Amino acid sequence: MSLLVVGLSHRSAPVSVLERAALTTDAQVKLVQDTVAAEPAAEAAVLATCNRIELYADVDKFHAGVAELSTLLAQHSGVGLDELTPYLYVHYEDRAVHHLFSVACGLDSMVVGEGQILGQIKDSLARAQELHSAGRLMNDLFQQGLRVGKRAHSETGIDRAGQSLVTFGLEQLAAGTDVETWAKGKKALVIGAGSMSSLAAATLARAGVAEIVVANRTLDRAQRLAHLLEEQYGQGLDEGDDTHVTARAVPMDAVPGELTRADLAVSCTGATGLVLTADAVAAAVEGRTGEPVAEIDVAVPAAPKPLPAAGLGADENCPLDLTAAQSGFSVMGEAAVAGMAAAELEQHAAWVDNGTVDIRETGRRTPETPVEADAELIGALAAAVTRVGRIPERRRPEPVADFVRPAPALFLLDLAMPRDIDAAAHRLAGVRLVDIESLAEASADAPMAADVDQVRRIVSDEVAAFGAAQRAAHITPTVVALRTMAADVVAGEIARLDGRLPGLDERQRGEIRQAVHRVVDKLLHAPTVRVKQLAAEPGGAGYADALRTLFDLDPETVAAVSRAVDSTDEKDRPA
Description:
By secondary structure, the chain is α/β, with parallel strands linked by helices. The protein is built from 22 helices and 10 strands. A 6-stranded parallel β-sheet has the order 7-6-5-8-9-10, sandwiched between helices. Strands 2-3-1-4 form a 4-stranded antiparallel β-sheet. α5 packs across α19 (451-500), α13 (255-261) packs across α14 and α19 (451-500) packs antiparallel against α20. The longest helix has 50 residues, at 451-500. The protein is elongated and about 110 Å long.
């Protein structure tokens, strides 16, 4: 069996696809159950966060495993397989281990170095254990991933390189102002009472907001969170601190009224539809300001010099149909080839290189105008795709003329996936909305600390150690079966000797038994120690098979030992 992960994240898919593919808790449970019920998989776990969905499985066949896991992800996410496939990534064996360890350390997070992912990995493992879908491999992998993540945070300054998504989002809302200065004295509405909402509420309390109102569909959970906030932050953060936070809970139907009172709102629920529509946001702003809320005109940027898609797509000799390219995009630009495979790009580069295109006139191939620059550019795109798999789609925010946007009367932070707040609120005057999509854009330019390199070294070392331990563990049942067989041979020979020499006393029999056992142990010691060392090295999986063949070991005996070892590990494993 081998480890396989199939998934998509903010690095491989646009937010619009992640949003549609988001899994509810019930969907995650059903996905795990259906995965272990499928033929190629023996164990499974799902890691689902606001910016990633990953399915881990122990499979016996790579290609069948990829096909099955991809199909199951599509079925349970509700996004068609054909549409989902271009955004999926696949990691296998050591690369899969490397991926999870990198995720656990925060290297693959939208905000590099954030520590919240450790709690999400822990929850993922706990769910798999509850569903009995986590066997030896999943338990070892996820528990080691948690240890590697904790090691990275304790031994390096990765925390300085990144922060929680909540903190990063508040910094974007503050727009260059110190968050504590910006938040001091504000009234905050927190919609939702889960882990992310609780983190947001605590972060706001530490930042110095004056009031936090918690709204949740289950009022009891909102009341518990409000009570905890009052207990921890109601008397100020430090001794002598004269600031304090008041907190209270309200039902969800009170949100429209509370939004009118709030200076800022943070939303992170598991709702499948919008929690705040643009109309509701506009009504809240109007209630605060007493003035109708206008939409802001979006400034249209200067058009690039596009290569007309219709002309290229219509050329019968062009190997690609580019007629579907979005208006205003050029085949020379990144957006026009978003999602195209490397082979397709290379085909198109070759077609351009072998002909000429009159860009200024018809957009068609002509004998007059060389396009070496086009060929070089598209060839470079092809080379980039060969390295990273495919060029991701990047939807830049629409530029807004600064002079027409008034100072915000309401700040909104949407940390939900799928989104809680209507994206149309971006266009409302007096509103500043930060959501997962805008955070992804902002984090692309965020500086990375030098400690990231150290964390990468830790991950590489830990992956090598984990692989060696797994390979060594794989041969252990075979070694145990060999020693068991040797012990049975010794016992049989001692019994035969007792029948031939009945006159031996107990002391003599004991001496003979010890001598025979010592001979067998010495003969087996060096080979078994060495075979464990060799099996731990890359490519050492075949030594177990060689040992079974050389000593004619019964495969069922080896399997029985393996099951016994797994059962013992399961008992000793912490809950």
